Amino acid sequence: MKELNHQSVLDILPDRDPWAHKGDFGRVLLLCGSCGYTGAAALAAMGALRCGAGLVYLGVPESIYAIEAVKLTEPIVFPLPDCDGMLAAEAVEQINQLLPKMDAVLIGPGLGQSNGTLAALKTVLRQFDRPVVIDADGINLLAKHRYLLRGRTAPTVLTPHDGEFIRLAGELGEDRAAAAGALAQELGCTVVLKGHESLITDGKNCYRNRTGNPGMAVGGSGDVLAGILVSLLGQGIEPIQAAAAAVWLHGAAGDRCARRLGQYGMLPTDLLEELPRLMK
What we know:
This protein has 280 residues and is of the alpha/beta class. The chain contains 11 helices and 11 strands.
């Protein structure tokens, strides 16, 4: 069982070429949000930017586009066809046009479950040959359609909490590390089993994270983590290291918030403010 510390996380982060431009730091596509869940999309997008992604594209259902466009100034927010407040199957055409330009994709936070969101997940997993992060409703969709991973050779990272893990694997059991490792091997993925001392494994290597605190147990915290993770993948970091570093940074930002604000009143937006201070 491996563990990271602040220095080992900094060592994972790639050096920045002084002659580089925004396209050199990763183009990432986020497919997130639905009616009533605009915060998930915004938090994930800002998590990606706060951890160094050069260009963050956020595709949301057209019915919530105006809300996201007001919330966000730095990400590139664009509307996609929707049905009942969620992505419609017609969104697939536009998603397909964007995929070849991207370095990594995140799908799931606040997404909802429908025929349209399933069509988006299918497209990403079948057409995109670079890293994909599947979170939240993306995992819930995948749990009913695990065949979508069949034949996929590009990296896939799953970020389930306990309930989502059980939907995927059927059970969890007392040995969380063994269960996460078995699922990672079975699905050919990297698995981030979230919770107290989160576990990160690709079935061969396993990291245990010791940062974080109960103040982070609030809606939106996981969306920030998903954004951090897709950002690091988009910058070319290997999946197991990107996932372990993302979890460490997320928890360490939460620990800084707890020291400054206390655990009762800290918010996911506070995590966003602390992240840059951990990466310098």
